[in-house]
Amino acid sequence: MDLFLIFNVPNIIDYARVILLVYAVFLPDRLFLVAYGVSSSLDFFDGHAARFFNQCSMLGACLDMIIDRVSTVVIGMRIIKKEETMYQAISIYILIDLISHFIHFSMSTGSHKKCSNIFLKIYYSKIVLFPICLLSEAFFMSVLYFKNLNGIVYALGGVCVLKTFFHIVQLFTAISRMSMIRNVKKE
Description:
78% of the residues lie in helices and 0% in strands. It is mainly alpha-helical. Helix 3 (29-52) runs antiparallel to helix 4 (58-82) and helix 5 (87-107) runs parallel beside helix 8. The relative contact order is 0.11. The mean pLDDT is 90. It comes from Nosema granulosis.
């Protein structure tokens, strides 16, 4: 067990994200949004800290990806609690998000962001990924914040549809790569 790796700077940031998510679950909507927003904002810093301190690791990449997925589930459940009519859309979004990331991550070598597909190269570029993730989070948070869904929320929802397109591409690319593996070692 490598305690220095387990408790390096980016992983501590990720543990803080988890603590904030757990705390958020017990809060009313407005305070939930604050705790959730801080947790989501920390996602921006864990990768930067990993590169800055030369602390990139498989554990860090895995924590980052899993916490991102869990965050989506947590806010999705909160939205469904408030807006039952969004159950199907949120469920499909989460389903595609989870499956695509887990299969893609299992086929990559340390990060779900390494890929050869042209659409995924575009998606994972810094100038595309950050705005899409930011606006997608803004959509989910806006649904909870506003009593009535307005034009801004619908526009942000379009970003989620675009993000889902990239997740579907990610899923099919990973399935295609996985289908090329013929021999699986069983222990």
